[in-house]
Amino acid sequence: MDGRNDGFVVDGRPDAYGRYPRGPMARAESSVAVYVHVPWCLQRCPYCDFATEAINPRNIPHEAYADAVVSELEIRARDAVQGPIDTVFFGGGTPSLWSVEALGRVLRAIQSTFSGSPREVTVECNPTSLDEDRAAALEDIGVTRLSLGVQSLRERHLRYLGRLHDAPQAERALRAASSRAALRVTADLMFGMPEQSEDELVEDMRRLVELGAGHLSAYALTIEPATRFGELARKGRLRKLPDDGVAALFEAAERCAESLGLEHYEVSNYATPGQRGLHNEHYWRGDDYVGLGAGAVGCTVRDGRVLRYKNVYDVPSYLEAGARRERPREELEELGSDDRVREGLMLGLRTTEGVSLRALAERIGVDPRVGRERAIEKAVRRGWLTDDGDRLVIPRARWLLADDIVSSIF
Fold first, then answer.
1. pLDDT digit string, tens, across residues 9-36
2. Does the domain at residues 337-409 carry the CATH identifier 1.10.10.10?
3. Cα 410 to Cα 404: distance, rounded to the nearest angstrom
4. If we measure between CA atoms, which residue out of 71, 72, 73, 60 comes closest to residue 101?
5. In 221-358, where do the E strands start and end?
């Protein structure tokens, strides 16, 4: 889908899109989350640093890529926790460019590999590749949630972001998604574009909810070094909103969400009752997850070690490994107990529930407070954290300071 960052918390990317994923709980009774990466877009956006490439849809190897993903699934399933399937997320890239038949075959393979039935199956879509027929076809194969990369309903903001769709296309895609009874709909927004006003962001949020979105994700535009925007920024040629303007938009989004009856349950996410995104909660809790596809990231236990793996982003190589039914080329990182504590705190503190230190200790085998007692006490005195003896929570009024708060207790 689209490269983005909320800008307020360390490493704040939804990694159904590749940025949130972190260390696993590694518990035998855990449920399984599966992320499938689709590495193609019609056009690469100037802010995106994800593992994607632009492609003519006629050149997508639909069935060969599905074959390779199914082959990798068979290998990764041996490393995964032995529990029921909970969520499946098709991200990218633009999964709605992939043929519904190929996507459906992969989904069926996932469902037959793990016990149970998923509570949520999400597919990311761009407005340029979603219409009523495709929404109906996705519903028919068992998809339960569509995530639309709207980003803005303002033409000048869409042009600035290099998006291919216009506002009418976005509205048509939302209507198509929300017309399907079995589909929940979430829409992504960006804020922080030059000269963007609070009223514009609020009006966009209200319009998206009117069109059927029961969940909104709002991310501040972040300039990544290895992007076109990063290059322009280094040359001093990128127009962007000042930090205080970005902060004001974040606060305006929260006020608007409250007026719309949306719960602000994570730094960048808002939902009507019963519409929370379930897949990302695996990342925020620190559960392990299976990542499939070229450039995908996953976290599992292998040979008694907690490993984060990243498939090398090389589609031809990935397809060849699949044809040989071999493990894809991967980069491995072993996560020690301190890594897992830090990541458990970093991700859990994104949410309204915060982090249960007792549960974190049980999962990892070390006391998260050790070595952090004074830092936690100081943060509590400042009003940055609440601490009930077990659970640490960043008060929502302090979420704009979340970067500093998380860093202070590290």
1. 222 233 332 222 333 333 345 789 999 9
2. no
3. 10
4. 60
5. 263-266, 269-271, 290-292, 297-302, 305-311, 330-334, 355-356
